[in-house]
Design brief:
35% strand, 26 strands, 2 domains, single chain, Beta-galactosidase, Chain A, domain 5, mainly beta, five-stranded antiparallel sheet, 367 residues
């Protein structure tokens, strides 16, 4: 056998081995995906998967003690892997929301992130925390702790980042989500949870008749690319005023440049806070079922998204179609594009510091 033939044979064997290895690696990773159910004594149940740390389902009672699943999602892991709506119920990171042009500076070094929402970087990039398999660290009947190590320059971010997220279903009917992160190099961190809620039940119609209150006197306006302008403006006398309960759809058709840019509500609210203690952020009431969801957090901001990009092309659990504005998100967070706005609360994390964030979704009914 000639040297050339031997070389080609070895090359073919190497490529074949790599192909099999890659396929096996994918299958082995897929086998690590688990679904875990948490319950409390009141009958509330939440199902979580370690693929993206997602809340898959959340069953809560209505005024007649009938239970419905109030979060959008899918019945199988393959649907999560292949959907165009990739953020249903997930953990978002390293940076929730958008970063302008996928660029930011730390210590005069410019970092380039993946532009997965052209021209911007969104929710951690092409393979953010929503698209990785988290390690299950601890599990009880009512809580689960997940961990993930994000390596230096993953999706362009500096520093090795160790993250833990704990979901707890309390006896007060709270879904409590806590986040911790540590870095070995100066970096930026902004984590959140991205459930799409419909208090009528997932896939059961529009959310525009839900009543919403947001504890915020100001918000951060955006440009046509959904990036904050850097200004902080009052909500008073605008469609963005939810300082008192009003229906989500009350002002949705008002002619307003900000509503036009966001195709509806997709904006960050500056919560009324004096410090980083846990405080009330928002309340939602569904008039027919009388379900109530309250939000509490230590974060300075809250992203309110009204399901403007749901278009009926996605079918979820029980083959229900997820139509236009059939869900809302309330994401506790630091502000979008904070690294490029010095007047926004900082998202920088240094070695030796602990990043800590908490979001509480509390459920009840109006008697």
């Amino acid at each position: 056998m000639t040297f050339k033939k031997i070389f080609l044979l070895l090359l073919f064997m190497t490529l074949s081995f790599k192909g099999v290895s890659s396929e096996n690696k994918f299958e082995n990773s897929k086998n690590k995906i688990k679904f875990i159910s948490l319950t409390n004594s009141k009958g509330i149940k939440v199902k979580i998967t370690n693929y993206g740390g997602r809340v898959v389902s959340l069953w809560v009672p209505d005024k007649n003690n009938n239970f419905d699943d109030i979060v959008l999602g899918f019945d199988s892991i393959d649907e999560y892997l292949n959907t165009s709506e990739k953020y249903f119920g997930c953990i978002v990171g390293r940076y929730a929301n958008r970063i302008n042009n996928g660029l930011f500076k730390l210590n005069n070094i410019e970092y380039k992130l993946k532009k997965n929402n052209a021209p911007n970087h969104l929710h951690g990039g092409e393979v953010g925390f929503d698209s990785v398999i988290w390690k299950i660290e601890n599990l009880t009947n009512n809580s689960i702790t997940l961990s993930y190590k994000s390596f230096h320059l993953e999706e362009g971010y500096p520093g090795n980042l160790d993250v833990k997220v704990r979901y707890e279903l309390t006896e007060k009917n709270e879904l409590k989500i806590q986040y911790w992160a540590y870095t070995d190099q100066k970096t930026i961190v902004n984590l959140t949870h991205h459930s799409f809620f419909n208090l009528k039940g997932a896939g059961n119609g529009s959310i525009n008749d839900h009543l919403l209150e947001i504890n915020a006197s100001n918000y951060t306006p955006i440009n046509k690319n959904l990036i904050p302008t850097g200004k902080i403006k009052p909500v008073k006398n605008t469609p963005f005023d939810f300082s008192k309960l009003k229906s989500i759809g009350n002002d949705i058709k008002v002619k307003n440049e900000q509503l036009s840019f966001g195709k509806g509500y997709d904006h960050n609210y500056v919560l009324n806070k004096k410090n980083d203690d846990i405080s009330f952020a928002a309340k939602v009431i569904e008039p027919e079922s009388k379900r109530v969801m309250e939000v509490y957090t230590n974060e300075p901001g809250l992203q309110f998204y009204g399901g403007n990009f749901l278009d009926g092309s996605v079918k979820g659990k029980n083959n229900k179609t997820y139509n236009y504005r059939s869900a809302f998100c309330l994401e506790t967070q630091h502000f979008p594009d904070s690294p490029n706005n010095e007047n926004f609360p900082s998202t920088e994390l240094n070695p030796g510091e602990e990043y800590y964030s908490i979001c509480i979704y509390k459920f009840s009914v109006i008697e």
